[in-house]
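Input/output pair, single chain:
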Amino acid sequence: MFALRVTALIAATMTTGLMAGVFGLYQHTVMVGLGRSDDRTFVGAFQALDRAIINPWFMLSFVGALLLTAISAFLSPGRQILPWVLAALILYALVFAITVVVNVPMNDALKAAGAPDQIPDLAAVRHAFNEARWTAWNLVRTLATTAAFGCLCWALVVRGKLG
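Output:
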């Protein structure tokens, strides 16, 4: 049982850390770079990125972080580790919900506008997408996922002290 508990906690920590990196990279690099681009580039590049990110590696981390943290919480043996894992689970569940309720519908609406070469008013499509709203919610995802990662890292430290 010890090996299963530790393996689940390590896997939860790794996948959550990967997701903190993904959301963080979008926050401080991808959206900043796209924000400096013209409307055609913004719409086309964002659509391409959104299509590309839905792949097995991303989904393994995105869904895996939630499932593995839940498994870790279920397997956590006591009061020293469980609060940290539960905090991580709550934070990442919030991130998961924001992604599904806010960011994905915004992404889908931008994709539904069609190919940039077929859009008569790219500025209107970009404006309707609302970069500021997308980025604000992504900042929440970045901070919450980073905090969840920190909680899981601390759970590993506590696990190590317990022996």
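The chain is about 85% helix and 0% strand. The mean pLDDT is 96.
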